[in-house]
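Here is one chain, start to finish.
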Amino acid sequence: MAHNIDELESVAAPIDHKRTANIKIASINLFNFIEPPLAYYDFENIYSHGQWQKKCQWLSEFLAHRQPDIVGFQEVFSPEPLKRIAREQGLGYFAVVDEPTLISDYPSFRS
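Its structure:
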């Protein structure tokens, strides 16, 4: 284990400046990605089973076609199905950085 900068430099692999790598980054707004029978924005417009399957299939095909290395998803309210799709498409790491929260102009009342 290196203990000072001189040792670090001596054990570091040489950099091949002729070698390049491409990284594909995608950002996808999944517009209310929530598994039925749940709803988040519009409680009168819940996905049917068929609509949900179609949405998941579209996403799976998009990821298979584009093959991004890194993806940022927005409007995800059901992270587990998304995690499954991401893994099936070869994305080995998955993280949820925040949870959905309710933001309203109206005060919250408890009964």
